Amino acid sequence: MKINKAIFIAATGQNVGKTTVSLGVLSTLTQKYHKVGFMKPIGQEHVEAEKDLHVDKDVLLFKNYFDLKDSFKDMSPVLFPKGFTRDFLDGKVAREELTKKIEEAFQQMASRNEITIVEGTGHTAVGSIVDLNNAQVAALLGIHIIMVAPGGLGSSFDEIALNKAQCEKYGVKIAGVILNRVLPEKKRMIKKYMLKALEAWKIPLLGCIPFNSFLNTPSMEDFAQLFQSPLLSGKEHRFCHFEQIGLITTFEEMGCKLIRPNELIITDASREDILENVLRCPGVSVGMILTGNSPPKTTIVARLKKMKIPMLYAPYDHFLVTKMISSYTTKIRKKDIAKIEEAIRVVRGHIDLDLLYELL
After folding, report:
1. Is the pTM for the entire model greater than 0.85?
2. Cα(256)–Cα(277) distance, integer angstroms
3. Which domains occur in the chain, in start order?
4. Which of 64, 140, 206, 347 has CA atoms 20 to 30 A from the CA of 10?
5. Separation of alpha carbons 202 and 177, rounded Å
6. Angle between helices 18-29 and 337-348 (to 10 degrees)
7. Taking the chain, what is the end-to-end CA distance rounded to the nearest angstrom?
8. Any residues with CB less than 8 A from the CB of 90 and at least 6 apart, and which?
9. Block means of pLDDT (10 residues each) for the chain, length 360 residues?
């Protein structure tokens, strides 16, 4: 009789890298298993996959990229839309209804796949207000957790300890830990001492994934989402990523010789002298975010379109735009194939595959 397997990928916090790790792990498992499934039992950020059908955004990403055959209903059984918590506390939603959906979806996934990746939401206590957090879901499904933590030492171990306590409360085992975004120059030291620290709990360290600047660099599509503003030109380059950002406020700061390849230029939409200077430099791979109270002139937009320069208008001042960018956390989007493939490459190259298979 075939025994179905599954693993729950959780994290010590939000934006730690669950999706990045899940991409790499699932891709790795496809080398060993013929049928690998992916599900996100509880989703918070959802998108419309089909007419009148909303699913977690990560589910859409995985289904599209890996061409998974499972239904959206099973891959994303429960969503927490806006106002869901209040509805639950008002008694409009029953916990039993949610657990039934999750259990039935998981059973369907397990029956069709040799192994299933189950991705959590936020840290292990997320969902506690509706009495269904990540640790509880893992316990409900009877599967172990791989914990993704930031790539540090002391603070990372402390975060693992907090989440471990939540797992122990519901009888869930942490099968392994993966550190993400480890600074390359500290990787050897962190790996050595994290192994020693985890030994006290008999929890293996499955990998130390190094910090990858490309994975943490926003694309023009990310900026469009951040500023809730569509690209006005260069839409075919919406998934371009720029290695450096140049804030240009005066013409003296600008010149063809100062425009660096693969640079994102931020300047006021009213500074036509600066914009003209960019337009006189054909062949330079740049992107533009135009700021200020007034949008750029249609004649400027038309010329940028002709040159296929990706540009959007953010109706804010320089200070606010740069502040919003500096605090923004990039997400992997389903059409950003370059970032998906880089995530897979970096994860597969820095996890202990033999140990992973052994745990499974």
Report:
1. yes
2. 7
3. 5-215+334-359 (3.40.50.300), 220-326 (3.40.1390.20)
4. 64
5. 11
6. 70
7. 17
8. none
9. 74 94 95 94 87 90 96 95 93 95 96 96 94 96 96 96 97 97 96 97 97 92 94 93 80 54 87 82 79 93 91 94 90 91 95 87
